[in-house]
Amino acid sequence: MRTFYMNEAALALPDDAVDRTTTNVLLSTPSGARATFVVERLDIELGQTLREACFSYTRELETRLRAFSTVFEREGSIDGAPALEIGVRWRNNAGDMTYTRQAHLRLEEAWLILAIEGPLEVREELDALLEPILASVQFRSE
User: Which domains, from first to last, does the chain contain?
Assistant: First the structure.
């Protein structure tokens, strides 16, 4: 058994348990716009590179979301781990333009996406909210 941590408690799970939870944290920008910080845990296919996984994920979003376009793509690192960052814009169901910035990481067999999402018109504020969050990441070794 290994320890699994969540906000409310820690509990024991079988050693072969795989965490695929999604975390959504509501935030606000300095101007008061609503934003969502998201952590998504996915499986990465055997032999698939992080770049291939990110490209596939982005193409799938492109087919589901209206007025989707890529704003930027770049390589970086988070707590020493290589990361691919992508910014995209798209139109939500209410017709509003939305901005999402994602950082994709591969941690052993896990694929982790750290993202922020909110109104496109406050893109700079969203980026400013995400930067210190990404800089604060410290991966656990347990």
Answer: 20-136 (3.40.1000.10)
129 class by beta-carbon count within 10 Å (0-12 exposed, 13-18 middle, 19+ buried): buried
The C-alpha atoms of residue 45 and residue 114 are separated, in whole angstroms, by 19
Whose structure tokens read 């930027």? 72
DSSP 3-state assignment of 90? strand
pTM of the model: 0.89
Q: Kindly report, residue by residue over 12-53, the tens digit of the pLDDT.
A: 989 888 888 899 999 999 999 999 999 999 988 888 899 999
pLDDT tens digits, one per residue of 55-107: 999 999 999 999 999 999 999 999 999 999 999 999 999 999 999 999 999 98
Instruction: Take residue 23 and report the two structure tokens written for it.
Output: 């975390």
* Rounded Cα gap, residues 125 and 106, in angstroms: 27
